[in-house]
């Protein structure tokens, strides 16, 4: 867990500030991120990989707030994006277009054209159909699109079924055996320059063996392609490095570096990775207030103002998030379900968790919420999106204000025939 969220004098702090003080100003629930935590995660990875000259492209999907992207970009990160929206966020954060890689199983013509117009560094292409449409768009614009082929190495990442991507039955990438055919087709296209391959096998991977297998497959295919006369000068090794939510062993970065060194570093290719969760996951928490406590069958229900629409990971992936009181309380631990007010049994942050009792008005921090938290939130049950706060030592900034009810309502429109306010 990130050391930037620590208890001092009985109260949880983020860097130099008490989280309770921020809560008093912005209200609950809210997301709170630590700049120092983001920077130290980036530095740890960059240092471990420095000798191998691996470029880090932050996978913006984990947390696409431009302030988060800008914090990491200031440390040297590029951006890995998967949509026209993320591209705009990365540009808004000041990431140079050349340091942006566009991934994803399908991109619209509008997205491709917009990205070409801005001169992004690379398109990771995942199908022959996409290669064709990118060629068409690029030719029409008289541009040449720098392309990397995303291969599917058929490796099991050993992670949750919903976040594994490198098996043959997954929709991602092109079967690695079809790579020669892909590069042959690309070579015949005026709008395409394909000299790169990428691989991404899944997320929250804590065992490094699947990375090694995937990178070995990538190495063999690189050598084989070169023998067939294709130039490959860049390998994108994907994201997926797991983090500690509970009692996981975080992969050792020097072991990860050793794997890269042993598999692909002698190929004389430019190397890059696309970590998301590793950089932001433990750099953020969700702060929520206890609305009431209800005694249930063999357990207490602690009902909070935050809910599954704010953080869906527990119910979507059975994900564990540690929950800590902002202010320490005494009392024996008991079995508790921490749940939100939404009308669904899947609306919970924790089930049958042995934890200290909480009272109405208490503030709780749901830890490890910096990745795939705010970005996956919705307004389900007509709950306005919650604010996000970025702390930098003793100062903080609301990097996304709370959506007001007026803003939420303004997005909808009544047709004339139902609008009673119109004559
Ligand atoms: N590159 C590609 C092509 C990806 O698809 C992903 C994540 C990443 C990089 C970054 O992976 P990371 O380093 O963050 O593991 N919502 C899920 C995670 C979905 C990951 C999707 N792809 C969750 O909350 O666990």
Explain this structure.
The protein is α/β, with parallel strands linked by helices and 423 residues long. It folds into 2 domains: 5-32 and 281-410, Lyase, Ornithine Decarboxylase, Chain A, domain 1; 35-279, Alpha-Beta Barrel (TIM Barrel). Helix content is 28%, strand content 25%. The protein has helices at residues 19-26, 35-49, 66-75, 84-92, 109-118, 128-140, 179-187, 209-227, 253-263, 277-280, 313-317, 405-410; strands at residues 5-8, 11-14, 17-18, 30-34, 54-59, 78-81, 100-102, 122-125, 145-152, 174-175, 192-198, 234-236, 270-273, 284-296, 299-304, 323-325, 334-339, 348-355, 363-366, 388-392, 395-400. The strands form 3 sheets. Strands 4, 14, 15, 16, 17, 18, 19, 20 and 21 form a 9-stranded mixed sheet that branches. Strand 5 (54-59), helix 3 (66-75) and strand 6 form a beta-alpha-beta unit. Helix 5 crosses helix 6 and helix 8 (209-227) packs parallel to helix 9 (253-263). It is globular, with a radius of gyration of 23 Å. The mean pLDDT is 95. The structure holds ligand LLP. The site of ligand LLP has 21 residues, from helix 10 and helix 11. Residues 59, 61-62, 80, 103, 163, 200, 203-204, 238-241, 274-278, 313, 317, 372 line the site of ligand LLP.
């Amino acid at each position: 867990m990130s050391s930037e969220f620590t208890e001092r004098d009985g109260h949880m702090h983020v860097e130099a500030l008490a989280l309770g003080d921020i809560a008093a100003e912005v209200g609950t629930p809210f997301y709170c991120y630590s700049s120092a935590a983001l920077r130290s995660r980036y530095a740890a990875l960059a240092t471990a990989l420095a000798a191998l000259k691996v470029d880090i492209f932050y996978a913006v999907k984990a947390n696409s707030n431009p302030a988060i992207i800008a914090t990491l970009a200031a440390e040297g990160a590029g951006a890995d994006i998967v949509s026209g929206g993320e591209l705009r966020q990365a540009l808004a954060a000041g990431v140079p277009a050349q340091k942006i890689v566009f991934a994803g199983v399908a991109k619209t013509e509008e997205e491709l054209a917009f990205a070409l117009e801005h001169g992004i560094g690379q398109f990771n292409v995942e199908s022959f159909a996409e290669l064709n449409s990118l060629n068409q768009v690029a030719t029409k614009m008289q541009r040449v699109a720098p392309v990397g082929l995303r291969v599917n190495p058929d490796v099991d990442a050993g992670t949750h079924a919903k976040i594994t991507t490198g098996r043959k039955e997954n929709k991602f990438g092109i079967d690695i055996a079809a790579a020669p055919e892909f590069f042959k087709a690309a070579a015949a296209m005026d709008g395409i320059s394909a000299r790169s391959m990428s691989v991404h096998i899944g997320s929250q991977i804590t065992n490094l063996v699947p990375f090694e297998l995937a990178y070995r497959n990538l190495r063999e295919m690189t050598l084989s392609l070169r023998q067939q006369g294709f130039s490959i000068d860049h390998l994108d090794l994907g994201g997926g490095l797991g983090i500690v939510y509970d009692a996981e062993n975080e992969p050792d970065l020097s072991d990860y570096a050793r794997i890269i060194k042993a598999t692909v570093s002698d190929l004389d290719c430019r190397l890059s990775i696309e970590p998301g969760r590793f950089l932001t996951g433990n750099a953020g928490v969700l702060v929520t207030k206890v609305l009431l406590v209800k005694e249930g069958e063999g357990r207490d229900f602690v009902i909070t103002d935050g809910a599954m629409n704010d953080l869906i990971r527990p119910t979507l992936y059975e994900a564990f998030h540690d929950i800590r009181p902002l202010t320490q309380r005494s009392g024996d631990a008991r079995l508790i379900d921490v749940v939100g007010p939404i009308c669904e049994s899947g609306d919970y942050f924790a089930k049958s968790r042995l934890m200290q009792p909480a009272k109405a008005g208490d503030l709780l921090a749901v830890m490890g919420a910096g990745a795939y938290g705010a970005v996956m939130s919705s307004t389900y049950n007509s709950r306005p999106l919650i604010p996000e706060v970025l702390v930098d030592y003793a100062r903080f900034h609301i990097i996304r204000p709370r959506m007001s009810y007026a803003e939420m309502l303004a997005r909808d429109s009544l047709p004339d025939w139902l609008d009673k306010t119109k004559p």
